[in-house]
């Protein structure tokens, strides 16, 4: 419109328009007393507000005033005059996630996972406060910058304080990202946010949401359909990623993944997401590893080095300063090299024990014979792990007839070099297993085999276990075995 000018605000200079909606326009602005302070100002026209939009605006201000989180856009202040209400907010130079996706058509799974972890971190924070966003979509997810983007959840106009048992009946959100129950039954709860997360992840990986349509009638038909959401075969996704998508995109909210299952899902893996805490955790673990290494406990040191490396990798991803990043990468390479040396040492020690006649079952039990006839505690690497979701039925699984009295199932991690799993497998199992038991192939479950029911690489991990580790190409892998001992 010719001659149109942005609103005037006493302490700020409003410049370019960043976006606009039914009730508000967002501008980039500078503080007059400090031109280096760049903000985004949401200008809400009072004359366009109805009762519902006033309530939404008040809710947005109330929520943003009380939350401070690295992945939620910050409300710095709010003001008003006769014509406008102004929300002065953190400026995000990277635009929104929708533009980011469309500029690249699709995102690699690795990038999509990092964004998902950041979104999950924000949702976990909100979920703990019983806050539901109710309008999750790529347009409401901002990026701090384009070169090193950090996700920022924004636009809380439809957000509500909702406990897990609360139900709502008012239609909110954007149809492409709305859970089916919001349209079909108009009765919904906080789980609608999980559906929206699934749609957003789907769009990042495949370039468009699952209900992409040419008309509203076509969209409504897809939403009301009972057909399950099918995932395209290309691009190929990891098993964990596909499992998460299928769990989130369940039309029936009762069958949909729960919040707890989402936060602990192996693909989300919030424990190992890049964050300010990653380096602290890695440093703590590597200090323990060095101590065990100096004390001559090779297997325990190897396990601790491996655990530390699981945090060093996200710490590298989180670090933005080039000099510090290069120094950290150099230290990580040192730890990887030392872990390789310890791996070879542990393998040779176990080989020597087997050659001396120590049964493989005793090694797997973690009770290694001492020269004096006693036993010492097993290193962490060899100890059976606590039961997890994929092995929850182990205790109920029937044992083969040849098993000795007192034998039982357990899931045990074994660390070895990439491509070297067969040698390690035969080393551990060449004594104690009956002849003819075929070794399973890595990364694929092998049902029907009594001695070893499944092997998983570190990239996949035990399905639905929440257990995660990191792989270093041509360096280390962790293989998970369901073993009888």
TrEMBL record:
ATP binds at residue 42. The keyword RNA-binding does not apply. The keyword Transport does not apply. GO terms for biological process: autophagosome assembly; autophagy of mitochondrion; piecemeal microautophagy of the nucleus; regulation of autophagy; response to starvation; reticulophagy. PROSITE patterns: PROTEIN_KINASE_ATP, PROTEIN_KINASE_DOM, PROTEIN_KINASE_ST. Its EC number is 2.7.11.1. InterPro entries: Atg1-like, Kinase-like_dom_sf, MIT_dom, MIT_dom_sf, Prot_kinase_dom, Protein_kinase_ATP_BS, Ser/Thr_kinase_AS. It is an enzyme of class 2 (transferase). It catalyses: L-seryl-[protein] + ATP = O-phospho-L-seryl-[protein] + ADP + H(+); L-threonyl-[protein] + ATP = O-phospho-L-threonyl-[protein] + ADP + H(+). One of its GO terms (molecular function) is ATP binding. It holds the Pfam family Pkinase. Keywords: ATP-binding, Autophagy, Cytoplasm, Kinase, Nucleotide-binding, Repeat, Serine/threonine-protein kinase, Transferase. It is found in: Cytoplasm. GO terms for cellular component: autophagosome; cytosol; phagophore assembly site membrane. Its main location: cytoplasm. Residues 12-268 form the Protein kinase domain. Belongs to the protein kinase superfamily. This is Serine/threonine-protein kinase ULK3.
């Amino acid at each position: 419109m010719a001659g149109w000018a942005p609103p005037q605000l006493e302490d700020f200079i409003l410049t370019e328009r960043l976006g606009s909606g039914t009730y508000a326009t967002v501008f980039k602005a500078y503080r007059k007393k400090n031109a280096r302070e760049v903000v985004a100002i949401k200008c809400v026209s009072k004359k366009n507000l109805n009762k519902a939009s006033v309530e939404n605006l008040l809710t947005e201000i109330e929520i943003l005033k009380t939350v401070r989180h690295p992945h939620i856009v910050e409300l710095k202040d709010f003001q008003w005059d006769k014509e406008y209400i102004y929300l002065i907010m953190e400026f995000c130079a990277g635009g929104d996630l929708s533009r980011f996706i469309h500029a690249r058509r699709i995102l690699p799974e690795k990038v999509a996972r990092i964004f998902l972890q950041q979104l999950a971190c924000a949702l976990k924070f909100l979920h703990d406060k019983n806050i539901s966003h109710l309008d999750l979509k790529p347009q409401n997810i901002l990026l701090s910058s384009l070169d090193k983007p950090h996700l920022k959840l924004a636009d809380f106009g439809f957000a509500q304080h909702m406990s897990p048992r609360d139900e709502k009946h008012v239609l909110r959100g954007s149809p492409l990202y709305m859970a089916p129950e919001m349209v079909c039954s108009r009765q919904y709860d906080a789980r609608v946010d999980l559906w929206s997360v699934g749609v957003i992840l789907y769009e990042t990986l495949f370039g468009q949401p699952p209900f992409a349509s040419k008309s509203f009638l076509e969209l409504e038909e897809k939403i009301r359909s009972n057909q399950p959401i099918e995932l395209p075969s290309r691009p190929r996704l990891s098993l964990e990623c596909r499992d998460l998508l299928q769990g989130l995109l369940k039309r029936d909210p009762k069958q949909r993944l729960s919040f707890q299952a989402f936060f602990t899902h192996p693909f989300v893996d919030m424990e190992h997401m890049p964050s300010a805490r990653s380096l602290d955790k890695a440093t703590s673990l590597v200090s323990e590893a060095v101590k065990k290494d100096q004390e001559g406990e090779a297997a325990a040191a190897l396990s601790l080095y491996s655990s530390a490396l699981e945090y060093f990798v996200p710490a590298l991803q989180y670090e933005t300063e080039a000099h510090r990043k290069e120094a950290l990468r150099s230290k990580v390479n040192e730890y990887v090299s030392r872990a390789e040396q310890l791996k070879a040492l542990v393998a040779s020690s176990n080989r020597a024990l087997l050659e001396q006649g120590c049964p493989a079952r005793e090694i797997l039990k973690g009770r290694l014979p001492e020269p004096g006839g006693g036993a010492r505690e097993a290193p962490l690497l060899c100890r059976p792990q606590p039961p997890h979701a994929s092995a929850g039925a182990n205790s109920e699984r029937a044992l083969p007839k040849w098993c000795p009295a007192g034998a039982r199932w357990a899931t045990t991690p074994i660390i070895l070099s990439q491509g070297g799993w067969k040698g390690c497998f035969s080393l551990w199992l060449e004594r104690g297993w009956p002849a003819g038991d075929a070794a399973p192939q890595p990364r694929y479950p092998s049902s029907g085999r009594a001695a070893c029911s499944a092997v998983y690489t570190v990239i996949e991990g035990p399905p639905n276990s929440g257990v995660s580790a990191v792989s270093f190409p041509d360096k280390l892998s962790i293989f998970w075995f369901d073993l009888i001992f």
